[in-house]
Write a structure and sequence with these properties.
Keywords: FAD, Flavoprotein
Strand content: 25-35%
Largest sheet: 5 strands, parallel
Organism: Streptomyces coeruleoprunus
Number of helices: 9
Shape: globular
Cofactor: FAD
Low-confidence stretches: none
InterPro entries: FAD-bd_OxRdtase, FAD/NAD-bd_sf, FAD/NAD-binding_dom, FAD/NAD-linked_Rdtase_dimer_sf, Rubredoxin_C
Mean pLDDT: 90
Radius of gyration: 22 Å
Pfam families: Pyr_redox_2, Rubredoxin_C
Distance between the termini: 39 Å
Oligomer: single chain
Amino acid sequence: MSSRIVVVGGGTAGARLAERLPVTVLGEEPHTPYNRVLLADVLAGRYGPEVIALPSPLGEPVRRGVRVTGIDRDARVVHCDDGASFAYDRLVLATGSNPVLPPLRGLGGGPLPAGVHAFRTLDDCLALGAVVRPGARAVVIGGGLLGVSAARALAARGAEVVLAQQGEHLMERQLDANAAELLRRHLVGLGVEVHTECRVRGLKVASGAVTAVELADGFVLEADVVVLACGVRPRVGLALAAGLDVRRGIVVDDRLRTSDPYIHAIGDCAEHDGRLYGLAGAALEQADVLADVLTGGDAAYRGTRALTRLSLDALELAAFGEATPQPGDDTVQLADATRSAYRKVVVRGDRLVGGVLMGDLGAVGTLARAWEGDEALPDAPLLHLLTHDGGS
């Protein structure tokens, strides 16, 4: 094993690698590494920040609040904004991603107006929690997984929440239209006003603070707080400046090596086989593979088949793979709108290629194993697969 492994980034991927190996972690955030998946629960007041802290790493402690400003590939040294430098035998870029800021009138290119928040980091979460009061008017822009989570959390704090989604339905990447409609109804029941096919044109700002959100049809939503949940973009600036191969993300091979054999990349910033994942499950799997690689093992990363799970108070949701069937696919679907229950699986040949479950998730273990293993399904009827609890 290389004696000097430096990890740039203390998020999910970097922290997982630090659990496995003695490394030096350079983290830009001032906090100890934490579970980003649970940020909405912190915002909702269900957990304190200390509850979502990740296990302490092996070896040297994480150096917090340190930003890496450059990589000297010839000398194999990274330089930091506090003047420190760290030599490496292997460098791991786990720089994560940044929130996408949409091109809206009123945003400009400088700091966000008062009341406008991204929702990506613990600092974002704490800042939101400090300003949201019962009765506050909050508009969440973006109806993906992050936007839905933020809207639910803000409603739990007593805010009057409007969720504006540009697409046809909520969580378009994970859900089909039927499941999305059940989700919409559930959010409405929690006090969230949901608008789909709703394009935001700009923000109204007075004296440096947001006052309203202007929609493309001219309708205006008054707002004390605006949350931008419009997706994320890999952080690749450091890799670009170092001359590494970058497309949408930092390009890596099956050993998670970049175009420089002494530098690896994992997590949201890494692009493998043309894919960006942006999921905690992929970050953890990549870190585990890299830990084996860096200790002389023969592991190879072949991609991640990740299951998305979301808990919205009384509603449990799980989604995986392709929720929309292709011609020739077989589909089994069970729905009970009165109980917000929905189950659907898509089968192609003898392979399970996707599914959505809402309400009782007793069958999710059986289905997830069948999908993740990418193996031929048993001879049991699809209806049995969909209702069998698998001991989960």
